[in-house]
Design a protein that fits this description.
By secondary structure, the protein is mainly α. Helix 3 runs antiparallel to helix 4 and helix 7 crosses helix 12. It has a 3-stranded mixed β-sheet. It is elongated. The chain is built from 14 helices and 3 strands. A hairpin with a 5-residue loop joins strand 2 and strand 3.
Length: 331
């Protein structure tokens, strides 16, 4: 299609802006479909993700002044990232509002949050106008410095804000802390003790996990193992087993499972992980202390079964023990 020269520049500019905004909206749709329900599962981590992504995208947009030839590319990437950041922030914010509204005053909390956001936005606009006047004109070095300082302050405030909120739900890390406290000492920690660690937000130290809703093919590898598990869990509304990666326990719930059954299955899975981890630690300690032994004696030890289990079938002893423990402690 022929476009007259007088209209070519406005048409090109309009097309650039359409592409830039279109990438942002398309990125938000794809991101929401990929993440799914994980916003509810780890709201603090997603809130921090949105803060980091937002600062990165603002930096990309500012960089268009340095390389104008890449305006469409950098602007599209920046808009797509801002769409992801806004989606993650708005989705994770709901969990925070629920935790701050124990008396079901969710509308009041939401209204006050919106008012605070508007006040912060106005303060930011005034601060930006003052900085422009104070810095005396545009400079790439000055703009980069101010952007770095503001981004650092933004990330610090975002981290402190999510650190101060005590969520009413349990993710994999917090549940592991509670379960291990109950397993080792018979006590349930106070919510403030569970929420006071940086690992909860950043996700450190969570290599062992409980995976609820795995497929039967992931959980069971042989017909013999299936018979053992079905017999072992015939009185439960779930079955569980150590997964082949030796770091996770998979759980399959019955369609009639209650919240109590879900809690019992996760607690039992943590028991299996804890016992299996202790077994691996003991085996590695004994093998390191006897490293000077001959290879033949090491081979005989392995054949006698003193090494750590390497197959899900070998974990049935821990599973049977966990079934006894959960019946005794969880009714």
């Amino acid at each position: 299609m022929f476009i007259p020269h007088a209209k070519a520049l406005p048409a090109a500019a309009a097309l650039n802006w359409i592409l830039k905004d279109g990438f942002g909206q398309l990125g938000s749709v794809l991101f929401a479909g990929a993440v799914g329900t994980r916003f509810d599962f780890e709201p603090k981590r997603w809130r921090l993700f949105s803060a980091v992504m937002l600062d990165v995208c603002y930096s990309l947009e500012l960089s268009t002044a340095v390389v104008p030839s890449l305006f469409v590319l950098l602007g599209s990437l920046g808009n797509a990232g801002k769409g992801l950041a806004c989606l993650a922030a708005s989705a994770s914010r709901v969990s925070f509002h629920h935790s701050l509204a124990p008396h079901n005053n969710l509308a009041d909390i939401t209204a006050k949050t919106a008012a605070q956001a508007s006040a912060a936005s106005c303060l930011g606009i005034l601060s930006g106008a003052w900085l422009v006047a104070a810095l005396g004109g545009f400079s790439i070095a000055k703009t980069a410095f101010v952007c770095g300082v503001v981004s650092a302050c933004h990330l610090y405030c975002a981290f402190q804000s999510v650190q101060s909120v005590h969520l009413a739900t349990l993710d994999s890390y917090r549940f592991r802390v509670v379960a291990l406290s109950f397993l080792l000492g018979g006590t349930v920690p106070h919510p403030e003790q569970v929420h006071s660690t940086y690992s909860e937000i950043l996700g450190f130290g969570n290599s062992h996990e409980v995976r609820v809703g795995v497929t039967l093919q992931e959980l069971i590898s042989t017909p013999e193992e299936a018979l053992l598990l079905f017999d072992m869990f015939q009185s439960h509304k779930y079955i569980l087993n150590l997964l082949p990666d030796q770091k996770s326990v998979g759980v399959i719930l019955h369609e009639d499972a209650t919240p109590t059954d879900v809690l019992a299955s996760c607690l039992q899975a943590q028991y299996v992980l804890h016992r299996f981890g202790d077994s691996r630690s003991d085996s590695s300690s004994s093998s390191s202390s006897s490293s000077s032994s001959s290879s033949s004696s090491s081979s005989s030890r392995d054949s006698d079964g003193e090494s750590a289990p390497t197959s899900p079938l070998h974990s049935t002893g821990f599973l049977a023990e966990s079934c006894t423990w959960i019946r005794k402690n969880a009714g």
